[in-house]
Amino acid sequence: MGTEKCPFCSQEIDAAASRCFFCGAELSEGSVHKRLEELHEQDARVARRTRSHIVIGIIVVIILVSIVFFYDTSGRKRVSVVDSSYRDSTVRLKAKVTYPGAKFVISNDDSFDWMNVKLEIVPEFTKDRFSLRVPNISAGETYTAAAVEFSKEDGTRFDPYKMKPMRFWILCDTSTKEKGSCQVGLK
To answer: Whole-angstrom distance between the N-terminal and C-terminal Cα of the chain?
Structure first.
């Protein structure tokens, strides 16, 4: 007679055995094929689960990289895409902007004045920027600007009846000679 290895647990067993003494697997030819197919299916399920975990991991990494890319370490939104002179902005402005219709109501909630203020509107479905320069908005003051006062560099005016504002930017100088900025999403 002799010994051979169990096809399931690789332990040495009697060659004439119909069942493995160590793992209890049945050793008839039909049951060996059936068991091998079950193991193959189990390996395939594990491989699919592993692939799905890898895909989920990649998605999480992409989301985290996006968050890090679009936000600096303090959690403030970067302003560098608006105006290159405000790239090194250090002051996040406290502002409230409402759009009740054909006008914008801007509140300076900071304890300092905003000087050399540039207000910008970015409408939906376009990359056009309509801007308005205001010399000063004092601390605690509310400033109201008609939507048609905003214009592009070529002189085209913002039309509140045909365009809907999506984002509103406030860019300014502060009394400490730092740049200030704030972006407000409008609904």
So the answer is: 85
